[in-house]
UniProtKB/TrEMBL annotation:
Gene3D superfamilies registered for this protein in UniProt: B-lactam Antibiotic, Isopenicillin N Synthase, Chain (2.60.120.330)
Entry keyword annotation includes Methyltransferase: no
Family, similarity comment: Belongs to the iron/ascorbate-dependent oxidoreductase family.
Protein name as it appears in the record: Clavaminate synthase-like protein
UniProt GO molecular function: metal ion binding; oxidoreductase activity
């Protein structure tokens, strides 16, 4: 973690967002992403959204976000309102959790896709776009995802309970993650408002459809493993997939390995860690809501770039916050996204869709 904090404060890396955002300007984004040589994930500051002095200030930020989601499906958001010390503490507590013994972690094992809570041991999940259980089982046997995770939901749920480690085992873990969950939900509301401002001309349109906090906070630990295991055909730290909900917030350490597929060329590009930013991407339900106006783009986690011929990949940490609409929300084409050909997807319910995807993904 000392390395992570050092890299986050590096002057060279602090200038990285400027290089990314200024490459050719947001006005050229649609042109840039159609060539792999100029492909980029935009960097958007949310400061002007939070501190808007005029409606035009908010509109400018919202248009940048929606433009990125239309063309790429991904955006880096900086000045997002979650303090760096809060993010660092969440990473520290996550690392402490995974340092527990295998026996202690197994007591908190993930059990049910309807709950989607608890510890997931390495190899148990195999993320993929396939919905065929037999195909997924074969993929899991041949090329498992090399990671372990801890899944956390809203803590007041009347039916499904979070599985917390003993306080003496990981002091401060529960309070840290509950606070982080709340902060991520609050950011989710603001980003959805920016989308609503552009697509629906009403920034509060999504508010009553997301206030139940039907989200999933996922802590991820990718162990150091022989590099050759991640270079074999079909293997990765996390296979190519899209996410299920409305938005996903990804907090990365400095190791790297997250890749995004250019939706226009189908080539893969690194989502290079940029200190102080959150990687935000569109999920399937928001894509369905917007009738494909916004893209739920494929992404994966592969072996990071390493100088030389080091035999082992470095360990990697990340935190993903999967934002979802309310569990019973009806997801159907937004009235402003119908277009000339009508809705592309039948209506679905949030919980039904997500549980269906999870049921196929886990063993």
């Amino acid at each position: 973690m000392a390395l992570l904090l050092t890299l986050r404060s590096s002057p060279a890396l602090r200038r990285a967002p400027l290089r990314f955002a200024a490459y050719r300007g947001f006005a050229a984004l649609a042109e840039d992403v159609r060539s792999d040589s100029t492909f980029r994930i935009p960097v958007v500051s949310f400061d002007k959204w939070y501190n808007a002095k005029t409606p035009a200030d908010k509109a400018s930020v919202a248009n940048e976000v929606v433009s990125a989601f239309k063309e790429v499906g991904f955006v880096y958001i900086k000045d997002h309102g979650i303090p760096s010390d809060v993010v660092d503490n969440a990473f520290h507590k996550s690392a402490d959790f995974f340092k527990q013994s295998t026996e202690d972690k197994a007591k908190l094992a993930w059990e049910d896709p309807r709950s989607n809570r608890g510890y997931v041991a390495p190899g148990r999940e195999r993320v993929t776009q396939s919905s065929d259980p037999a195909e997924i089982a074969a993929l899991r046997a041949k090329a498992p995802d090399y990671k372990e995770t801890m899944e956390i939901g809203r803590d007041w749920d009347a039916t499904w309970k979070n599985q917390w480690p003993q306080e003496q085992n990981v002091p401060g873990f529960k309070s840290t993650m509950l606070d982080f969950f709340k902060r991520c939900h609050e950011l989710h509301v603001e980003v959805m408002r920016s989308i609503a401002l552009v697509l629906l001309k009403d920034e509060h349109w999504f508010d009553p459809k997301i206030q139940e906090q039907f989200h999933n906070l996922r802590l991820l630990s990718y162990p150091s493993i022989p590099r050759e295991l991640l270079l074999a055909e079909g293997t990765s730290r996390a296979g190519a997939h899209s996410d299920y909900g409305s938005l996903t917030f990804v907090f990365q350490d400095a190791v790297g390995g997250l890749e995004v597929q250019n939706p226009h060329t189908l080539s893969w590009h690194p989502a290079t860690p940029i200190p102080g930013t959150i990687v935000v991407n569109v999920g399937d339900l928001l894509m369905r809501w917007s009738n494909d106006t916004l893209r739920s783009t494929l992404h994966r986690v592969v072996a990071p770039t390493i100088k030389g011929d080091a035999p082992m990949t470095p360990a990697r940490q990340s935190i993903a916050f999967f934002c979802n609409p309310n569990g019973t929300a009806n997801i159907e084409c937004l009235p402003t996204c119908v277009g000339t050909t009508g809705p592309k997807y039948p209506p679905t319910e949030t919980e039904r869709y997500i549980v269906g995807r999870l049921s196929a993904t886990y063993s």
